[in-house]
Amino acid sequence: MFGVETLLAETNAPSTTIHEVLDVRDLPPPEPLTLTLKTLADVDDGVVVQVNDRVPQHLFPRLDDRGFDYETVERDDRVVTAIWRA
């Protein structure tokens, strides 16, 4: 989906199963943030991938506070952020 696997290979995300891919490009703020945090609340392992049209700057401090690691790759019209438990 969207070449997610290719972009994940460019990150330090663990090579485990992708838990879920969230395509939030068409959602207005703050829905991408809210949806991503709700999804992460149910994740113990694996990688959640957010596909967005911009870097999710407001998400990063919340991920830090919750103990998640993450990495973002920007390509063309999308930004892919891999998120996993530290």
Question: Which structural traits does this protein have?
Answer:
86 residues; alpha+beta; Translation Initiation Factor IF3; four-stranded mixed sheet; 33% strand
Q: Mind telling me the CATH superfamily name?
A: TusA-like domain
Known CATH architecture: 2-Layer Sandwich
The fraction of residues assigned to DSSP E strands is: 25-35%
Total domain count: 1
Biggest β-sheet, characterized?
A: 4 strands, mixed
What is the count of β-strands?
4
CATH class: Alpha Beta
The coarse silhouette is globular
Q: Predict the CATH topology.
A: Translation Initiation Factor IF3
SS-derived structural category: alpha+beta
**How far apart lie the N and C ends?**
25 Å
Number of helices: 3
Round the mean pLDDT to the nearest integer and report it: 91
H/E order of the elements? HEHEHEE
Strand order of the largest sheet: 1-2-4-3
List the uncertain runs.
none
The radius of gyration over CA amounts to: 12 Å
In which range does the helix fraction lie? 25-40%
Topology readout:
Blueprint: H1 4-8, E1 18-23, H2 31-40, E2 47-52, H3 59-66, E3 68-75, E4 78-85
Parallel strand pairs: 1-2
Antiparallel strand pairs: 2-4, 3-4
What would you note in describing this structure?
The chain has 86 residues and is of the alpha+beta class. It has a single domain (4-85), classed as Translation Initiation Factor IF3 (2-Layer Sandwich). Helices cover 27% and strands 33% of the residues. The chain has 3 helices and 4 strands, in the order αβαβαββ. It has helices spanning 4-8, 31-40, 59-66; strands at residues 18-23, 47-52, 68-75, 78-85. A 4-stranded mixed beta sheet has the order 1-2-4-3. Strand 1 (18-23), helix 2 and strand 2 form a beta-alpha-beta unit. The longest helix is centred in the middle third of the chain and has 10 residues, at 31-40. The model has no long low-confidence stretch (mean pLDDT 91).
